[in-house]
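I am still learning, so would you mind making up any protein sequence you like and the tokens describing how it folds?
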Amino acid sequence: MDADFHNHTSSIGPILQILPAEPGWEAVYAVYDVDQKQMVTMRLPLACWAVIEGKVVNKPSFLFIGMVRDGSKLISLTDEFDTGETPVGELLPTFLGYSYPNCETYWDELAEETYRERKQEHQEKQESSE
């Protein structure tokens, strides 16, 4: 891998070390499918794992997160991100977790559940601000 991680800072903190990801590991996201008009899962293969330096209540901490490739860049997508294909009024893609070969997690069900919960929170937030 020829990516330079020294200049990358995740939304959590600076990357301290890059470690290889075993084949078959994926980052799983809930995304709105315009054609199906429902939430589905999107899986992106992990390029590597990163040790990230963070701070919890002014104490140093270290996190281990998956990184995916976006062209020649390594990016961590543990939060919402905009693919540019999300319809107005729908929720942005949301990170659900990491999958591995023979993983028994029901990602499609988790995506639907996450969508319902987040949609309800979003509606409640809009109602309370009115």
In short: Residues 103 and 121 are 29 Å apart (CA to CA). The chain has one helix and six strands.
